[in-house]
Amino acid sequence: MADKTYESTSPRSVAFLGLGVMGYPMAGHLARAGHRVTVYNRSPAKAQAWATEYGGRQAATPQAAADSAEFVFACVGNDDDVRAVTVSPGGAFHGMATGAVFVDHTTASAAVARELNAAALARGLAFVDAPVSGGSVGAANGVLTVMCGGDPAAFERARPVLQAYARATELLGESGAGQLAKMVNQIAIAGLLQGLSEAIAFGEKAGLDMPAVLGVIGKGAAQSWQMDQRGPTMIAGQFDFGFAVDWMRKDLGLVFDEARRNGARVPVTALVDQFYADVQACGGRRWDTSSLITRLR
């Protein structure tokens, strides 16, 4: 985990549910910022390792982790996983005190966000859907972008705590708006990476010095985070890091479900999703999403 300067905020009692490649460092930043952190993970060994590393506590269930917590954060896999750590038996909603805030960093559907927001309100709790962008590097460095939906008062209460691992945190609307914004983010990234893949592959076929080319065009209108961060690794054929193709296809599945509901047309995104299916078929399920270029070489 990289060094980070934390904004001064009053220590809070918090819980973090889900210690995967994102959640583990995010919970670590909360502890380093001075908050009292209790963690839960389906694999108790990882929760024990986290508690040993950061000096926090571990709990056997989400409900136990949420007991006495002012804020409960989660970063799990999908809609059903979020339900499992909230409303299912042993879920956090059964242990949270009235007025506590649940912040869900999972990339999930807008529908489940609205569903759990209603369930939280019925119990006197608050729910904020807050998917993140920045990948594992952003989580490790504490510089994630957090897109939020939910009650403004609950968001403002949670914002100072979120700053432990965020560089940008924005409330974008009512419940579900955070998840919809994350879908916008993934649509944009899919198109950018395919365009960058085609550009690099074209330049290679033309015999150009592609590091030099990217160095020049990266100072002009073609510049993007993907070009700066992934362009050099794409040229080098390095894909064993970052945001996995499997995860991107899961996220794009959420996009297509929502597009069917709202009537949006996403033809380029659908095409890139099929390109990702090709990468999966070639053994690249855990390669970084920039591995789209492998289809073109």
Nutshell version of this structure?
It contains twelve helices and nine strands. It has 297 residues and is α/β, with parallel strands linked by helices. The protein folds into two domains: 162 residues, NAD(P)-binding Rossmann-like Domain (Rossmann fold, 3-Layer(aba) Sandwich), CATH 3.40.50; 117 residues, Orthogonal Bundle (N-(1-d-carboxylethyl)-l-norvaline Dehydrogenase, domain 2).
Feature tags:
single chain, 297 residues, alpha/beta, Rossmann fold, N-(1-d-carboxylethyl)-l-norvaline Dehydrogenase, domain 2, 2 domains, nine-stranded mixed β-sheet, 12 helices, 13% strand, globular
Question: What do you see in this structure?
Answer:
By secondary structure, this protein is of the alpha/beta class. The chain contains twelve helices and nine strands. The chain folds into two domains: 13-174, NAD(P)-binding Rossmann-like Domain (Rossmann fold); 180-296, N-(1-d-carboxylethyl)-l-norvaline Dehydrogenase, domain 2 (Orthogonal Bundle). Strands 1, 2, 3, 4, 5, 6, 7, 8 and 9 form a nine-stranded mixed beta sheet that branches. Strand 1, helix 1 and strand 2 form a beta-alpha-beta unit. The model has no long low-confidence stretch (mean pLDDT 97).
End-to-end Cα distance, whole Å, is 35 Å
CATH topology of the largest domain: Rossmann fold
Approximately what portion of the residues adopt beta-strand conformation? 5-15%
Task: Give the beta-strand count.
Answer: 9
CATH class of the largest domain: Alpha Beta
In terms of per-residue confidence, which ranges show pLDDT below 50 for 5 or more consecutive residues? Answer: none
What class would the helix/strand composition place it in? Answer: alpha/beta
Tell the overall outline: globular
Mean pLDDT: 97
Q: Specify Rg, calculated over alpha carbons.
A: 20 Å
Oligomeric organization of the protein chains? single chain
CATH superfamily of the largest domain: NAD(P)-binding Rossmann-like Domain
CATH architecture of the largest domain: 3-Layer(aba) Sandwich
